[in-house]
Amino acid sequence: MPQPVLIVLAAVAVLMCKHAVADFYLQSAYQYLNKGTYGHPGGIEHSAIHVALTPLVYLVIAPASLMLALIIAISEFLLHYHIDWLKEQVTHRNGWTAKDPGFWYALGTDQLVHGLTYLVIVGVLIAYAM
Fold first, then answer.
1. What is the mean pLDDT of the chain?
2. Is the dihedral of CA 75, 64, 120, 30 positive or negative?
3. Directed axis angle between helix 3-20 and helix 41-53, to 10°?
4. Percent of the chain whose predicted confidence (pLDDT) is above 70
């Protein structure tokens, strides 16, 4: 397998692992219970944890310039925060809980969009590295 392909796969794997850690292992009840309140520190804290862990992917691809790293961080923060906030709005407004199919559709869509965000981040970093 060509080295660039391995680098891309490794970068995506790092971001997927980072996402699992930040979304499932490090997310506290304070964060989870308050992501649906716009501007609440719990949601901000949750998104900040994601942003703080994303530079791990630079170890796989290449260090980004400070400006590019800042653009990625701000973009990821805004996207992650609003994706989570929107999912919370949809589930709460519909009264969905884990017993409802709609809850799982919303959660699955949330996770899919986060994953697509990571593909964009990897694409930007690869473009920068070349």
1. 95
2. negative
3. 150
4. 100
Q: pTM for this structure?
A: 0.93
Instruction: Report residue 39: phi and psi, to 5°.
Output: 85, 0
Question: pLDDT at position 88, please?
Answer: 98
Can you tell me whether residue 97 is helix, strand or coil? Answer: coil
> CA 66 → CA 63, 71, 86, distances in Å?
9, 9, 30
Q: How far apart are CA 123 and CA 108, in angstroms?
A: 23
Whether the Cβ atoms of residue 102 and residue 96 lie closer than 8 Å to each other: yes
Q: Are 39 and 91 in contact (CB under 8 A)?
A: no
Q: Which helix (H) or strand (E) holds 104?
A: helix 101-129
Interatomic CA distance for residues 16 and 8, integer angstroms: 12
Cα 57 to Cα 12, 45, 74, 119: the distances in Å are 8, 20, 16, 12
User: In 3D, which of 83, 98, 101, 102 has the Cα closest to residue 36?
Assistant: 83
Q: What is the DSSP letter of 40?
A: -
